[in-house]
């Protein structure tokens, strides 16, 4: 037997309502309206996001697959989206779990080692959520999990199964079907779950396996109204937490102390964890772009560069500020900082006038080159040589999309033409190592980056991380007081 749970749609919606209101009274793997009414309204699987929105996402994915050029010649499609698997530091000591973003986007489910299957036909689609089999011994240690019947009703899918039944389930779905295509990312990390799924794909004898991520990421880059609210929330948490972290600065403070404060404030304000290992780099260490050792102290007179963000229900913020640890910019520090801030402010004003990140980068090179020239960085050089030299002082891109992933989403090129309702970072930097004999002496050893998260809206750019100060005067006042 498959352990199949099939419920007519009207009955399923009624059952979902009853379950969400009355039956989920004990903690499961994730918050629910009943257990966490301060976080979730009735009908929401995540803050602001209802079960009906997740259903609409699955419907939209099915429509786009059906209309895809890759779908020609096939009448049936099976989309396989695995969740993240639990990972372990050593033995039975787990890392903090973070759900796979693609799986979460279509389910709202935070269960590890689970799988979403979507069967797409000419006339519609059916969704199947497979969760790990209930293990009483495991629940004794880790708490209650979603069993198939509860998962089917709570997450609004058509059927619920255990992951152990995937092979039999697929055989049933594809019975008497000759023309079908599998949509599955075979490049995924080789976890126990992904290896199992790859063996399933092989056992099906599918000759056509297509990566669904280009379609999925094309959907994810444009944010719904509920996602924009989630992003506003995580950006507010990140900005306020970094603002507080700046305020405790003092000469001699350890970088890891600032890291700890940022994480503490983020969690205190509702984030589950930081979005990524933060960069907390004092002095010349700021010229190492992804310095994450954070194990030195910051000396009097040095700048500190901190790149950090919060993760709130799977949505990330990404902010960078650079400030004087003693509350006073030196003249060279202030001059270089304001030159970079001028570039960032101009870029933010222009994001709605551009439609791709590659062109925005070209504008950054032009603006930063002009400002660095005025500070004596380059002697007379041509345009091409100037571009090369600017990239020497800012070797990273000026922007990336932001959402469920910090670099959201990886399958879209820089040339992707964006429209409204996308969220992006604007993060120019200037890095002058102390060993750079070609740079003006006063600026050597200074590394600066200024980064905000910006919503491209119908009315223009909206800075979501504006709660964290960045002007020279604001930063000095914040540290001093």
UniProtKB/TrEMBL annotation:
GO terms for molecular function: manganese ion binding; metalloaminopeptidase activity. It holds the Pfam family Peptidase_M24. Its cofactor is Mn(2+). Keywords: Hydrolase, Manganese, Metal-binding. Residues 49-190 form the Aminopeptidase P N-terminal domain. SUPFAM superfamilies: Creatinase/aminopeptidase (SSF55920), Creatinase/prolidase N-terminal domain (SSF53092). Signal peptide: none annotated. Belongs to the peptidase M24B family. This is Aminopeptidase P N-terminal domain-containing protein. It comes from Artemia franciscana (Brine shrimp).
């Amino acid at each position: 037997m498959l352990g199949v749970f099939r419920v007519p749609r009207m009955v399923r919606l009624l059952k979902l309502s009853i379950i969400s209101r009355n039956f989920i009274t004990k903690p499961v793997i994730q918050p629910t309206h009943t257990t966490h009414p301060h976080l979730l309204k009735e009908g929401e699987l995540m803050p602001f996001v209802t079960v009906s929105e997740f259903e609409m996402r699955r419907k939209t994915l099915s429509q786009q697959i059906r209309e895809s050029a890759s779908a020609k010649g096939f009448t049936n499609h099976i989309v396989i989206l695995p969740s993240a698997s639990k990972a372990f530091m050593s033995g039975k000591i787990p890392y903090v779990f973070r759900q796979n973003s693609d799986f979460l986007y279509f389910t709202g489910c935070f269960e590890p080692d689970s799988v979403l299957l979507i069967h797409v036909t000419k006339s519609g689609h059916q969704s199947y959520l497979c969760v790990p089999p209930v293990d009483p011994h495991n629940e004794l240690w880790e708490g209650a999990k979603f069993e198939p019947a509860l998962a089917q009703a709570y997450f609004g899918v058509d059927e619920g199964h255990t992951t152990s039944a995937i092979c039999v389930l697929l055989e049933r779905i594809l019975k008497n079907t000759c023309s079908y295509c599998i949509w599955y990312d075979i490049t995924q990390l080789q976890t126990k779950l992904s290896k199992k799924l790859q063996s399933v794909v092989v056992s099906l004898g599918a000759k056509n396996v297509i990566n669904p991520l280009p379609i999925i990421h094309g959907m994810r880059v444009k944010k719904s109204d509920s996602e924009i609210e989630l992003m506003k929330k995580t950006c507010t948490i990140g900005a306020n937490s970094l603002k507080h972290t700046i305020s405790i600065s003092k000469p001699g403070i350890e970088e890891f102390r600032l890291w700890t404060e940022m994480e503490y404030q983020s969690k205190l304000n509702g984030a589950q964890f930081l979005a990524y290992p933060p960069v907390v780099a004092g002095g010349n260490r700021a010229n190492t772009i992804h310095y994450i050792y954070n194990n030195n102290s910051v000396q009097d007179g040095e700048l500190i560069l901190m790149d950090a963000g919060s993760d709130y229900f799977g949505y990330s913020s990404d902010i960078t500020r650079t400030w004087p640890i003693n509350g006073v910019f030196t003249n060279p520090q202030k001059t270089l900082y304001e030159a970079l801030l001028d570039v960032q402010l101009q870029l933010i004003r222009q994001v709605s006038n551009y439609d791709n990140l590659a062109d925005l980068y070209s504008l950054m090179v032009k603006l930063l080159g002009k400002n660095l020239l005025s500070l004596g960085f380059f002697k007379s050089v041509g345009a091409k040589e100037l571009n090369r030299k600017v990239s020497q002082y800012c070797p990273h891109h000026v922007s990336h999309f932001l959402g469920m992933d910090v670099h959201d989403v990886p399958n879209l090129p820089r040339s992707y033409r964006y429209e409204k309702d996308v969220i992006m970072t604007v993060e120019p930097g200037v890095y002058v190592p102390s060993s750079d004999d070609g740079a003006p002496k006063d600026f050597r050893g200074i590394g600066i980056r200024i980064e905000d998260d910006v919503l491209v809206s119908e009315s223009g750019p909206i800075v979501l991380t504006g709660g964290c100060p960045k002007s020279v005067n604001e930063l000095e006042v914040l540290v001093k007081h």
